[in-house]
Amino acid sequence: MAFDGLSEKLSAAFKRLRSKGKLSESDVKEAMREVRLALLEADVNYKVAKDFTQKVTERAVGSEVMESLTPAQMVIKIVNEELTELMGGTNARLNFPSKPPLVLMMCGLQGSGKTTHSAKLGRLLKSQGHRPLLVACDIYRPAAIQQLEVVGNKAGVPVFQMGTENPVKIAQAAVAHAKDHGNDVVILDTAGRLHIDEDLMTELKNIKNKVEPQEILLVVDAMTGQDAVNVAKSFNDLLEISGVILTKLDGDTRGGAALSVRAVTGKPIKFSGIGEKLEDLEAFHPDRMASRILGMGDMLSLIEDAQNKLDEKKAREMAEKLTQNQLDLNDLLDQFQQVRKMGPLKGILGKLPGVDQKKLDEANVDDRIMDRMCAIILSMTPAERAKPSIINPSRKRRIAAGSGMKVEDVNRLLRQFEQMQKMMKQMGGKKGKRRRGMFPPMNMGGMGGMGGRMPF
Predict the structure, then answer these.
(1) Is 113 annotated for ligand binding?
(2) Do the annotations mark residue 189 as ligand-binding?
């Protein structure tokens, strides 16, 4: 997960601060020294780390903090505010013109993920009600046009291409095509190079001059740390980019690039890539990222994920069934499938406030657990799912063979489901009806309170 190392070191520094009732100036300076070291170890630019800790120290040694009843909490609040400001303060949105289309030029080094993230961005914009058009302006890399067509088709976004024609002419023709066909966003997937060279920049400048894009987004790999920041600075000096898409943020445990890009270039991170799937692109929110770094969770992003990826109608039906104690294995299967839509379990748990990231990393959270449970349920007949009590030993053997699991695994799932039903009845009172809004705890380790053990 992103920022794991930094989060751990900051938590340790603030734990020492909290252990002291009253803070002295030397206590704050010692804590800030640890924070600076943590930032440098996270591959944050040296000047950025130095300026950050200096700002926090200046604010933290004031009388308002020192004389507070909870000085340590005040210091953490200041660090949170300064981290948010360091990454841009607020979510930087795309600048849509009053007269469409919005022309958006994607640029970056080869291998940074421009083509994939062009499709990801197209999919995201389409889900928001826009009509994007992907444009193949990379005529040099083998199969680049075919790749864009494949990912564009998966994202459900049309692709405009003219083969190996001049990229400037392709871009101009694409904008004219978008105006004629009602596309309100044009995403230009430009060519990358193994390093920044004059030919690459000249071509990008020519496209910029001819089609006048409102947005120039630089795609950089977060895993490259300070190299990503240097690339961003070089592109900004030559092209004057409007923002950055930071890819592979889910795999960058240090997070130095995310914390340095804005301070070094003055340009905001607008989107972050958080996985390999086309839906794994999200708007970058500095305040939420700061909360995640400080171990405060990110409930807003979790709620947005649930709203975007879960079926509201099915959720209402499930709530109604729960109030009437009518839950069966079909409903359980549906719940597993809904949760899987929200991404890896570690990612979901990591957004919850108060979750110890170090312990979460050490825990053996296997996403295949739900897949195995689903396989068992899918191996049952409709009658067995609706009424699990009819499943006798011979049926269990058939279900185990059909799902590739053991009979013990089938028994364990049925036992846990039975315990969950009992808990629902206990919570429901004498009439067997539960109070609206109360739901039994769903535990991946033991649905219904099996002490957090993983079932398989």
Answers:
(1) yes
(2) yes
Specify the fold of 304-428.
434 Repressor (Amino-terminal Domain) (1.10.260)
Q: Is residue 207 pLDDT above 70, yes or no? A: yes
- d(C-alpha 311, C-alpha 316), whole Å: 9
Does 123 count as an annotated binding residue? no
Tell me if the domain spanning 102-296 has CATH number 3.40.440.10: no
> Which CATH code of 1.20.120.140, 2.40.160.10, 1.10.3720.10, 2.60.40.10 fits the domain covering 4-86?
1.20.120.140
Mean pLDDT score, 420-438:
56
Residues of each domain in the chain carrying CATH 3.40.50.300: 102-296
What is the average per-residue pLDDT within 116-134?
94
109 among annotated binding-site residues: yes
Q: Is pTM, for the whole model, over 0.85?
A: no
Collect all residues with Cβ–Cβ distance below 8 Å to 221 and sequence separation of at least 6: 111, 112, 113, 228, 247, 248
The verdict on whether residue 249 carries a ligand-binding annotation is: yes
Q: What is the pLDDT of residues 189-199, one digit of tens each?
A: 999 877 777 88
Q: Is 252 annotated as a binding residue?
A: no
Phi (first) and psi of residue 215, to 5 degrees:
-130, 130
Residue 265 counted as an annotated binding residue? no
Residue of 76, 7, 18 lying closest to 358 (CA atoms):
7
What is the location of CATH 1.10.260.30 in the chain? 304-428
The answer to whether 114 is annotated as binding is: yes
Q: What is the C-alpha separation between 87 and 267, in angstroms, rounded? A: 10
Pairing of strands 243-247, 185-189: unpaired
> Residue 298, annotated ligand binder?
no
Interval 1-37: pLDDT, tens: 556 677 778 888 888 877 776 777 888 888 888 888 8
Is 389 known to sit in a ligand binding site?
A: no
Residue 319 pLDDT exceeds 70:
no
Q: Does 112 appear as a known binding residue?
A: yes
Tell whether residue 192 is among the known ligand binding residues.
yes
Q: List the structure tokens of 232.
A: 């961003």
419 is in an annotated binding site: no
Provide mean pLDDT across the span 94-99.
89
